[in-house]
Amino acid sequence: MSLAADQRRRAPSESEAILNALPNPVLLIAPDGKIMDANMAAESFFEISTQFLQRQSLKELVPFGSPLLALIDQVRSSGSPVNEYKVDLGTPRIGGDRQVDLHVAPLNERPGHIVVMLQERTIADKMDRQLTHRSAARSVIALAAMLAHEIKNPLSGIRGAAQLLEQAASSEDRMLTRLICDEADRIVTLVDRMEVFGDDRPVARGAVNIHSVLDHVKRLAQSGFARNIRFVEDYDPSLPPVLANQDQLIQVFLNLVKNAAEAVVDLGSDAEIQLTTAFRPGVRLSVPGKKSRVSLPLEFCVKDNGAGVPDDLLPNLFDPFVTTKPTGSGLGLALVAKIIGDHGGIIECESQPRKTTFRVLLPMFNPTKRFDQSNRDGVTGTPSHASHDSR
Which residues of 128-161 are buried (b: 16+ CB within 10 A; e: fewer)? Predict the structure, then answer.
C-alpha cells in the first residue's frame, strides 16, 4: 500500500480522535434534521451515547421552539456560519439550567449538512457569580466578627444574672431563668459559628486522597443520620491527590452529605445519595495578582434524589442565613463555600426535582511545586474573571 493510500485510510480515525479531544460538544446534522455524528463531549452533554444520538432528530433533544433549530435553517439557506450566545438548551432529562453559546456552520463538502458546536456557559457564569458574592460578603463577615466579640460579653452577664435569680426563684420562675440560660447558650453557639467566617489564617494543605475522605464521611453518615439511606459510589480510581486540608474536607463533605440525607429523608427505601469523583481538564480560574490561571481539574459531587432546591434560593444558596430548613441557621453551606474558597476552589449547585448535585472543583496536588501558604491562590480576594478554558 502506498504512503498516500495509507494516509487516506488513517484519516477518518485521526479526524475522529481530534473531534473527541475537543472539550466542547460537536454535532453533525443531516438535511432532514437527523444527527449524523457526535463527539464524546456531546455524549456527555446530552447524557446518551453516539449510537443513540444517531437515531435521534435534533428537535427531539432540544426544547420545543429552540433558537438552535432556527439558526440551522438560517445557516442552511444562507450558506454562512452564525454564532448565538446564551441560548438555553435545558430539558428535564439533561437539566433545566444549560446555557450555551452556539456556533453553527455549513459543511461545504456535504451540501445541506450542518456542524453545530456548543460551548456551555454554566460553569463560567456560576464561578463569576460565586466570586462576586464572596466579595460582597466580606464586609458582612467583618461586621459579624466585630459583633460576635461584642455580643459575648453582655450575654455572659445575662446568663450569670439568670443563674443568681434561679437560686431564689420558685419552681415556676425557675423555668423562666432556665429558659434565659438556654437561649443565652444558644446565641453563644451561633456567635461561635459566625466567628469562623472571620478567620483569615492560611490553610495548611497537602496531598489528600479524596476517596479516603469520602469513605470516612460515608462511614460517619451510615452510623448516624444516614443509617437507612442507600449510597452509590462512582469513583475514578486513577484520580491524583487533591491539594487540601483533610480535616476541613471532611467537614465540607459531611455537611453536604448531611444536607442530602435531610433532603431524601421522606423517600423511605427510595432514598439515595451518590458520591462521584472525576478528572475534568479544561476548568481554569483567573485570580488577582497572577498571570496564569489556576487549574481546577478535580471534580467531586454529592448528589441526591430529593425534592430539590427552590429556584428562588439557588442564586444565593451559599450566602449566610439562606436556608431551606425551618429550623436551620443558614450557616452550613456558607461555611462550606468559605472552606472551598480558602482552598482555591469553587462549589456550585444544580437542582431539579429528584436530581440535586453539589459540585466541588479543586486543584490537584503538585509535588514539584512549592505551595505558598500566605497566598491561598488569591480566590478570596477581589472577584476576577472565571472561565471554562479549552486549552
Answer: bbbbebbeebeeebeebbeebeebeeebeeebee
Query: Whose CA is closest to 203, among 374, 5, 22?
Result: 374
pLDDT in tens, 240-280: 999 999 988 998 999 999 999 999 988 988 999 999 999 87
Calpha distance 216→359 (Å, rounded): 19
Show the 3-state SS of 122-178: HHHHHHHHHHHHHHHHHHHHHHHHHHHHHHHHHHHHHHHHHHHHHHHCCHHHHHHHH
Model pLDDT for residues 55-84, shown as the tens digit of each residue: 888 888 888 778 888 889 889 988 888 888
| CA proximity to 337, closest of 126, 37, 175 | 126
User: Both ends of the chain: CA-CA distance in Å?
Assistant: 37
CATH class for the region spanning 3-120:
alpha beta
Fold of 206-388: Heat Shock Protein 90 (3.30.565)
pTM of the model: 0.54
8 A C-beta contact, residue 258 and residue 221:
yes
Q: Rounded to whole angstroms, how far apart are CA atoms 261 and 271?
A: 8
Residue type, 177: T
Distance of CA 253 to the CA centre of its chain: 13
Find out whether 332 and 191 touch, Cβ atoms under 8 Å. Answer: no
